[in-house]
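Researcher: Good morning. I'm working through a list of sequences from a screen, and I'd like to move beyond sequence-only analysis. For each chain I'm collecting a predicted structure so we can compare shapes side by side. This is the next one on the list. No need for commentary yet; just the structure.
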Amino acid sequence: MKILAIQNRKGIGDMVIFLPFIEAISKKFSTPISLLVKENSKAEIISSQNELIDKIIILDRDNIKKGRHDGISGSIKLIGDLKKHNFDKVFIFNSSLRFNLISKLAGIKDIYQYPLFEKKNQHVIHAAQDFLKNKLNLDVDSYPKIKIDEKKIIISKDKHNIKKEQLNILLGIGGSGPTKRIPSKTFIEFMGLVLNKFNNCRFFLATGKNHEEQKILNEILNSKFNKQCTALDNLDLKDILPIIKNCNTAICNDSSFSHLAAALDVPTIVLMADTPLLYGNYSPKMFPIIPDGEKTVTHDTLGKDKISPNKILEKFENILN
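Model: Good morning. Structure tokens for this chain:
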């Protein structure tokens, strides 16, 4: 039996969130699952050690640059691409009529999908849980896990001189939008607080190449804590993952690194400034901090300047204890 799962959300975080649901389908039918995902999901890297995931098919849709699968001609090309694999079943993790029709025209007999035309206000996790409960009577916990070859973890530890007697801390200082990026001064103040209590610390700084992210990175590297810092921005994700796995804990903005760290079983403090709380507390390895003065956090909270370094330290100490 050949099964396809379609997860068309963009980004690494969404790919991580959907892992337990894709794995549950694989276990139900005792066969690895192929995925149709966007390239920026980094599914090939994230699932490289996952025996429950088979082929990765890239959904080339951009809507701006006009990807290969955009528009009517793109749909025809996607139908042809899927036909080559002779899938028996497809699980569509969205409410799009487009993917329903593409699946039918690709000759896939059994189509399972979210209710059509109900995209508005869909809870990213609850919708997936309800979907598998209704279609397959499966109860799926939201606890994604990423597997890494133990040899790669050891090689990374030696290569980057990661010492067990140190506190190795991932700082996920990047973020997909300006309202998610906590200012460098917050991280720098936290670093000072933690070094006053635990003087043998090393900070791994994870961020992208965006100009504003690089500005935050450089402000931290130009601080008095420079010698305790290692920047990861020039490394590939496949090389960053084993470094994260070697860390004792992570403090991250709501970004791909918070999802990755938690999925690698690293206790992760998530600094929630401007997105729904569910993105920072869906895993038992996640410990969210919300802006001072707020009872919760959602879009337009705009709280990046109200995250307390003292609260980060308090949560950090609780995790260590």
